[in-house]
Amino acid sequence: MANSEGKTCQNCRNQFTIESEDFRFYEKIKVPPPTWCPECRLQRRMMWRNERTLYKRKCQAPGHSEEILSIYSPALSLTVYDHDFWWSDGWHPLEYGHNYDFSRPFFEQLRKLFETVPLVNFYNTNPQNSNYCNHTVDLKDCYLIFGSIFNENVSYGSDISYSRDSLDLYMSEKMEGCYFNL
Ligand SMILES: [Zn+2]
Ligand SMILES: [Zn+2]
Q1: How far apart are the CA of 62 and the centre of ligand 2, in A?
Q2: Are the CB atoms for 81 and 89 separated by under 8 Å?
Q3: Angstrom distance (rounded) from CA 148 to CA 130
Q4: How many angstroms does the Cα of residue 121 sit away from the middle of ligand 2?
Q5: Is residue 40 helix, strand or coil?
Q6: Could you tell me how far CA 129 lies from the centroid of its own chain?
Q7: Which ligand is nearest to the CA of 12?
Q8: Whose CB among 37, 105, 159, 160 lies 3.0–4.6 Å from 16's, allowing a Cys bridge?
Q9: Are 71 and 122 within 8 A, CB to CB?
Q10: Helices assigned H by DSSP within the chain
Q11: What distance in angstroms lies between residue 30's CA and the mean position of ligand 1's atoms?
């Protein structure tokens, strides 16, 4: 059984410890021990979720060329459609299905799939007059709010739910007529 082991993070150069039970877990799932410290690994995982860094890029829906805002940088080789077209029946996601090739690495194929299947510019489900919001559900007359659900007439903030007629909120629920609530 492996003992705990001190390591130097290959990213930030800080010391971290891999415990003996961690080694057992890595053996069990057949992966090598990490070379990055837990904090750097967490940052790398969280990079996947871009809530509020917005980029201008061209809509790539068939016959479209308008400029849209998106959470995906134009420098990335991705296919991004505007929100309304992506949610429409103008394209069919199953057309992008193909068989898994067991002779090639999984992540190479996953990346290719991710680059090919059209992505929606913002993850904004059922917005009414709330186009500039991301990771949101059921918004009406909202502007630049993120990670938020069930709001009306709320602008600027994140992690807001069941609120209305408010500005500059953060981690707030059931607010009404509020400003700068944290
Ligand atoms: Zn580190
Ligand atoms: Zn478009």
Answers
A1: 8
A2: no
A3: 12
A4: 10
A5: helix
A6: 22
A7: 1
A8: 37
A9: yes
A10: 20-28, 38-46, 83-87, 106-116
A11: 22
> Counting ligands in written order, which one lies closest to the CA of residue 68?
2
pLDDT of residue 59: 98
Say if CB 162 and CB 151 are below 8 A apart.
yes
Residue 112 CB: number of other CB atoms within 10 A? 12
Q: Which ligand is nearest to the CA of 82?
A: 2
Q: Is the alpha carbon torsion for 39, 40, 41, 47 positive or negative?
A: positive
Distance from the alpha carbon of residue 50 to the mean position of ligand 1, in angstroms:
21
**Alpha carbon of 1 to ligand 2 centroid (Å):** 57
Q: DSSP labels for 80-120?
A: EE-HHHHHSSSS-GGGG-----TTS-HHHHHHHHHHHS-EE
Q: How far is the CA of 47 from the centre of ligand 1 (A)?
A: 15
d(CA 161, CA 139): 10
Ligand 1 is a single-atom ion; what residues have CB below 5 A from it? Answer: 9, 11-12, 37, 40
